[in-house]
């Protein structure tokens, strides 16, 4: 069974659905796998997520569902090209058959990577990162799964705040990530760790320069194995790297390239497809001091997709940046009217921010209290790990 853990707000999920998870992109996959898409926001899917968890969207699993408890045969985090996903499915099939036959050696890189996947599902993030490291050390230099396994490892080093180890991995393995989407994801986590490390640490500037070089080859080159959505993300990370390196002209160039890529991708597409790029476009226009342009296409999108919570949510975020508090509050109320699950709880935080900015403090406090109750009420499997604590801390500081 191939399981796609996705969410309606996840632009990468929408891009994968449109450009990768298709019969013509994954030939014969439907003959070997049952495909199951799980909307992680729906309350009826919470029990599934208790056993098969998600911390980054999208996440894909291959499961042996014939067992009383589904057995993990593979896990992929984030975007993938069709070629990468076909390779992943091939390896998962090999793992499935070998597990049934008892022929997969425990020190095989694939077995070690799957052991990392299983530890992740059990909540042992540090143990999972260790298993991915063992898989990489056992694998040959040209192991095709090296890039995505590196992403799995570095993402967990970041999540467990092993920042020094994370930056060290970024420095030692940046050139092992190729030029597909795994390279952009790996660079993103390396930069995130560098941002939280002590700024005087000599490794910080080194990993930022390495990431800037890698990301420029993904963002600014015309011929790359990336969807427009993935290339846009690479450009966003490139802008962040150049900001950290105090390269203002480079930041503007990365933003301009990102906007061009996204607008070209959205041009003449159906609204439900063009929606994939809307927040990235809006955020880039805001950064370029062209927020009114974002309001224009988002207003049009909301009219075209009146049941989708994303356009009014994006509008509320843009209005907040433009200090148009009342318009932002009207937009977020429209979004809340369509939203559900963890996303609806998260949106209440934006509403509280808008109310505070409008000097409506009592209403802001009541909204935060409602947000805390909404997080507490979420079923196990859908409760964000730190959000409840964050809201509790905001209310404590209020008192």
List keywords for this structure.
399 residues, mainly alpha, 65% helix, globular, 20 helices
Describe the structure.
It is built from 20 helices and four strands. With 399 residues, the protein is mostly helical. It has a four-stranded mixed sheet. The longest helix has 20 residues, at 82-101. The model has no long low-confidence stretch (mean pLDDT 96).
Instruction: Spell out the helices and strands N to C.
Output: EHHEHEEHHHHHHHHHHHHHHHHH
- Summing up helix and strand content along with how strands pair, one would put the structural category as mainly alpha
Distance between the termini: 50 Å
Shape, principal axes of CA atoms: globular
Spatial order of the strands in the main sheet?
2-1-3-4
What are the SSEs and their pairings?
Blueprint: E1 2-6, H1 11-19, H2 29-32, E2 35-39, H3 46-51, E3 59-64, E4 71-77, H4 82-101, H5 109-121, H6 125-138, H7 146-159, H8 163-173, H9 181-196, H10 202-219, H11 228-244, H12 248-266, H13 271-274, H14 278-287, H15 291-304, H16 310-321, H17 325-338, H18 341-357, H19 361-377, H20 387-398
Parallel strand pairs: 1-2
Antiparallel strand pairs: 1-3, 3-4
